[in-house]
Predict the structure.
Amino acid sequence: MRIPLSTLWIALLLVTGLACADADTAAEAPAEVATEDTPEAPAENEWITLYDGSGTEGWEMTGPGSFRIEDDGSMTSEGGMGLYYYKDLQLKNFVLELEWKSPSETANSGVFVRFPDAPDPWYAVNTGYEIQIDDSQDSLHVTGSVYSFSPPTHVASKPVGEWNQYRIEVRGQHYQIFLNGEKVNDFTGDRSEEGMVGLQNHDDNSQVSFRNIRVMPLPDAEAS
């Protein structure tokens, strides 16, 4: 049976019209957008403020004790032994900077890095590393040590009551500790290669203060 030419033209026009309509519908469909449930990864080589005195969002306490906020915006440990940790970031390679001030040479505290979870304070002790604060202990447990693993080359703390600065550089399993601009420890570890950071509140007689806490994530390519 021969189909009239006019019928073929009508069919062709109908098919073309449907294809154009489908293309217009696809163009008008909204693109998928990220939701609040999928946060962006932290930018590499950019500082992220964890605490500057303006609030404690992102921080969580595990274990006994607490941290109180002082009038000058610093935070001071109370009681213990507990751990105040920043729960919103799992870090691989990074630079961590913060300032701390001790009320006495025997006050005990520390900065914990790379513990992957925090069901209790001892989990951080057993899975991460503690950068010690305590000017009265032996070489493996004194300020600047990687607690119980690596002694500092020297103690570079300022006099009691003055602010000190820690700079902790972590690349792969390589840990470098700087205290007040002086390199005091160079350590190769073998524990978790990713985790959180936190501050220890050790006991009632160790009310150590902290301020100006920030971290810079580093790219994997810089690991050594």
Q: What stands out?
A: Residues 5-39 have pLDDT under 50 and may be disordered. The chain has two helices and 13 strands. The two ends are 79 Å apart (CA to CA).
